[in-house]
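Standup notes
- DV: blocked on the single-chain target, sequence here:
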Amino acid sequence: MTTPNARSDIVGEFQAMFPQQSMGYDRTITVFSPEGRLYQVEYATEAVRHGPLAVGVKAKDGVVLVGEKRAPHPMADLDSLKKILLVDDHVGTAIAGLHADARRLIDYARVQAQINRLSYDEPITIPSLIVSICDIKQEVTQFAGARPFGVSLLVGGVDDEGPQLYTTDPSGSFWGWKAAAIGKEADVVRDFFAERYKDTLNLDGALDLALDGILKVTDKADASPAKMAETLEIGRIDTKDKTFVSLTQDEVEAVLKAKLAA
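- DV (later): unblocked, structure below
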């Protein structure tokens, strides 16, 4: 049985871990802390930061997405895990965070893309698609009984304005990028891109830079191309045919072999 003194010690330790000023402000999404913070949104962002890495690079003639897959258990079939998914013919996305949340958002994005085709007889623009996704993300930060989506999407595609690359945040914020990363060690990769990115990059150069970024912070550098291909997915789209394509595992292995041999 816990004695009164022991209970006091436990309470004291809890209060030391969580300052009194912040206690209670993370119990619901609708309450701001005195510092103007929404803790539930920050917790959702932490879920993204612990997710497997995904990177994207925009070139003058297309966009490349590369994602790392991480098995939840040694017996899990990695082929059943998808890191890069098609939204519409001209746009794809890579995810970091909770896959179940990503599935819900991607299904919604696919519906919006088809509604646009049926209504206007043309593909949806990338900014319009991003705004639709982020409106849903932002909406659940305003109502009690809901929680933020614990996932970020890295969206790449080509529309009438050319290649586009965006990230969406759990808060509902979004940004356009030349090169971006989401998930674990994303800050390190973004700094690496800032040093290496050039506006003159073509699609092949963008793929090379994306692979350099993802290999910089993962433990795959010493693995064989075949082994690396099991845990990496690559998607790409160019301005010529405007069709987003996910490479097969054999194609990913061939790309890695060529890179390591260079």
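- Follow-up: The mean pLDDT is 90.
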